[in-house]
Amino acid sequence: MRFVLPPARRPRNPLMRLLSLVLGLAVIGVLLVFGVVVLGVLVVGGGLLLAWRQWKLSRAGATPAAGSVTRDPNVLEGEFVVLNGRHVPH
Description:
By secondary structure, the chain is an all-alpha fold. Helix content is about 55%, strand content about 0%. It is elongated.
């Protein structure tokens, strides 16, 4: 089963053609401006969020926490699981 739209009828009057062209360009322009505004809001919001997070991290790193231990930067820390040859995880 195919979905077929009826053919679009173009107006024969030249003024109506011009009006439909101008209306179509206006709709495209409004959508373009709306997209640029949304992009600007996202860029500015992302920049502010990034700056705020960096500011929080710099404030947290400036004062050492009570009871903190200085660690060797050459030591890699993490959680490790010892695997033996008999049991292989899926």
